[in-house]
Amino acid sequence: MNVVYRDLKPENIMLGRDGHIKLIDFGFSKQFSSGSSEMRTMTNCGTPAYISPEVIMGVGHGFEADIWALGVLICELVNG
Question: Which residues are catalytic?
């Protein structure tokens, strides 16, 4: 769907009635056009504990910023 969420954290995850995981608060998300060859954004946004290094450095980021935040989230869930 070419959407970068950019704010993955426990506070933005809900469980639906059917038990499926739902993401809420799409305020920081950005959708790229499907024909775009350069899927990068330069905006510095997100929760400081979950921000990837490329967001902090300001070199541009894409979907890898969400993968970084998912890794931090999983680490927090496993370690408590």
Answer: 7
